[in-house]
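User: Quick sanity check before I run a bigger batch. Here is a single chain. Can you write out its predicted 3D structure?
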Amino acid sequence: LCIAEHSMTLYFIRNPNLRPGGGGQPGGPPDAGAPRAPGTPAPGAPAEPPPPPAPVEIIATNLEKLFADSAAGKMGPVSDYERVCGIIPAEWGAGGDMALDPTEEWAYFRVDRTAAAKHLPADTKIESNYGPRNMGAGPTGLGKMNLKTGAVEFLIAVPFQIGHVQTNPYVSGEIVFCWETGGKAPQRTWTVKGDGTGLRPLYPEAPYEWVTHEAVITKDEVAIAIMGHRKTGTSDEWGIAGTREHPTGLAIVNLRTREMRIAGQTKSGSGLWHVNGSADGRWAVGDDFSRSLYLIDRHTDEMMMLSTGHKPTAADHPHPTFSADGTKIEIQSAMLSEDNRSMNICVIPVPKAWLARTYTDKALP
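Assistant: Done. Predicted structure follows.
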């Protein structure tokens, strides 16, 4: 799901051959006589082989009209609110990650290994899975669609598994993605231009660094977590990475100068994990394995625990993000859930005393 920055529009990828919810009612349990989605076995039957790649649509949903009609109690058919921007051919194997250019002219998406392999030189070394989760093998690639015309273009192919595709929401034609292994990667973070040029590592990491959860935070910066969650001296299928024998913490990389600075780190425990920052460059934020939330003043390097007590049994992690004006932080939490797993969206204000601070320097270069 991709929310537009400058319009009330939601973009998403949809396989038109799959029924919502897999049953007679969208989102509900399957009906006994209802047709099953491809690859879904009947109760008690052995699993069917996965279906072949299918063409997928990129859909634009007009949220302004949808919300207005909902409030008025006058909902129309789906076609009143959705527009098919275009169709990605089946042979591209799309259907995973998608990111929206801030101009809303282009959407970028992941391409599967069969299609990507056609665009790599014959002598390219294809990466195998890395680590114990059996992820990371290539090749994969990126493509893009013109959301006005529906035209699709192939951008790049790489010899590893692409994940976490995102765009710079402040600069058109700038993409950030990762080598997805489910853990430590030999080189986690990458960036490329929207025309396929300029492919390079975003933060060239060392074998002892465990880099994860990259997020574009300002027009020139990406926040990353350099993890310190493992015991000193560890060496296993992930290698020697992720200990505090070397610097760890919430790091911020400048896309223009390529310089990196560590904004903060917890004194013990897992260290900061899912990280983000405010668009004005004033704040950084991160959670840790305990689901506690830490706020960092980038001017002074002061760090405070902002919130804690979020249940580690939750179905997902807090994943903090900032409001556009940098005054609030949004997280997901099971703190109020009776089943200890269901997630609620929570908004935590930046403390008024911190918002009232004035500075003689500036956090951004």
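The domain at 1-19+54-202 is CATH 2.130.10.10 (Methylamine Dehydrogenase; Chain H).

User: Great, the batch can go ahead then.
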